[in-house]
Amino acid sequence: MNLDDLPIRDDLRGKTPYGAPQLDVPVRLNTNENPYPPSPGLVADLARAIGEHAGELNRYPDRDAVELRAGLAAYLGHGLATEQVWAANGSNEVLQQILQAFGGHGRTAMGFEPSYSMHPIITSGTSTEWIDASREEDFSLDPGKAVAAIEEHRPDIVFITSPNNPTGTAQPLDTIAAIAAAAPGIVVVDEAYAEFAREGTPSALTLLPAHPRMIVTRTMSKAFAMAGTRLGYLAAHPAVVQALLLVRLPYHLSTLTQTAARVALRHQEELLGTVDALRRERDDTVAWLRSKGLVVADSDANFVLFGRFPDRRAVWQGVLERGVLIREVGPPEWLRVSIGTGEEMAAFRAALEGVL
Ligand code: PMP
C-alpha cells in the first residue's frame, strides 16, 4: 500500500511534508537556529531540575503551565500578567491553536507573502481558506494597500510576521496599528525574531492594550537558543487565552518541557547574551554580501536573504559541496543564510566566494 491508497483528506493529496533538509554537514545555517549551545553551567542546572521532577513523571504535568507562563510574562514585561500569556510546543503549535479556535471551515486567514510558509500550511490544515496579500518589491508593506486588502476580503485572521521570515523585514508599529484597526477579527503578529531587531524597531506588545484582538507570538527557538526544547508562547487579552483553552489538548506541555523552559528563563541573561554578537555578525554579513555586488534585504532577524541568482539551486548546491548548508527559500532567485558563529560565517563567505 502507498499513501495514495489511503482515504486521506482530498486537500492533503499530492502534498509533501514541510521541512528543510536535515543534512549532516559541518556548517548548518539553514533553519535560523542560534548557533551557541547551552553552557556547562546551564546544562548542569537543567539536569538537576529535570532530576528533581523525574520522580513525578507518573503524574500529568501542570495542565495550565502556570509557573512557566508567569515567568514568560515577567520576561516580556509591558505589565503583562500570567492570564495574558499562553505557551505550547513551539510557536507553530501556538499558531495552530489560534487557527483551531478562530479559523476553520468557511473562515479565512490572510498573510503578506513572501512570509513564513507554515502560516498558509497551518491555515489549510485547519480547513481555513488562505488569502495572499503580497508585499512590495523591497518586501515592505504598504499600509494603504494592506488596509485595502483587508477591507476587500474581511479575513477572520490576519498574519503579520515582524521581523519577517524569510526576508528579515520588520514592520513599523504604525503599519501594524493600521492593519489592526482595519481587521475585523484576530491579528497575529508573529515576532519569532523580535529579540534580533535593530535599535528603533519596537515590539507590537506595546499595541496590545489598544487592540484587544491582537495576539503577539514569540518563541524560545531563536534568540533563547532553545530550539530543541520546543517552547513557543503568546501574549494577548485574557479572553483570547480562554479561547485557546477550548482547543488545546490536555497536558500538551510535558513536565520535561515546562521544566526546561523554566530553567531557560532563569538563565535568560546567558542565553540572550548571544543576541548582540549575532546582530553584529548579521550586519557584517549584509555589508559583505553587498560588497560582492549582491542584492541583500535589510534584516532585523538572525538571517539574511540575498540574491539574485537565475539558478539559485546551483549556488545552494555549490555552497553545500563546500560544507555549508543554507536555505533555498523565499522568492525565486533568492537564498537565505542563518547567522552562525564568526567561524561559521567565515566558512560561509569562503564557500560562497568559491561558487561566485
Ligand atoms: N514563526 C516564524 C516566523 C518562524 O520563522 C518560525 C520558525 N522557523 C516559527 C514561527 C516557529 O518556530 P517554533 O515552532 O520553533 O517556535
Automatic annotation (TrEMBL):
Its cofactor is pyridoxal 5'-phosphate. It catalyses: L-histidinol phosphate + 2-oxoglutarate = 3-(imidazol-4-yl)-2-oxopropyl phosphate + L-glutamate. Pfam families: Aminotran_1_2. It comes from the Bacteria. Signal peptide: none annotated. Residues 27-349 form the Aminotransferase class I/classII large domain. Residues 1-14 have a biased composition (Basic and acidic residues). InterPro entries: Aminotrans_II_pyridoxalP_BS, Aminotransferase_I/II_large, HisP_aminotrans, PyrdxlP-dep_Trfase, PyrdxlP-dep_Trfase_major, PyrdxlP-dep_Trfase_small. Pathway: Amino-acid biosynthesis; L-histidine biosynthesis; L-histidine from 5-phospho-alpha-D-ribose 1-diphosphate: step 7/9. The modification N6-(pyridoxal phosphate)lysine is found at residue 222. Its EC number is 2.6.1.9. Residues 1-20 are annotated as: Disordered. PROSITE patterns: AA_TRANSFER_CLASS_2. Keywords: Amino-acid biosynthesis, Aminotransferase, Histidine biosynthesis, Pyridoxal phosphate, Transferase. CDD domains: AAT_like. Belongs to the class-II pyridoxal-phosphate-dependent aminotransferase family. Histidinol-phosphate aminotransferase subfamily. NCBIfam families: hisC, PRK03317.1. HAMAP family: HisC_aminotrans_2 (MF_01023). Homodimer. This is Histidinol-phosphate aminotransferase. It comes from Nonomuraea monospora. The gene is hisC.
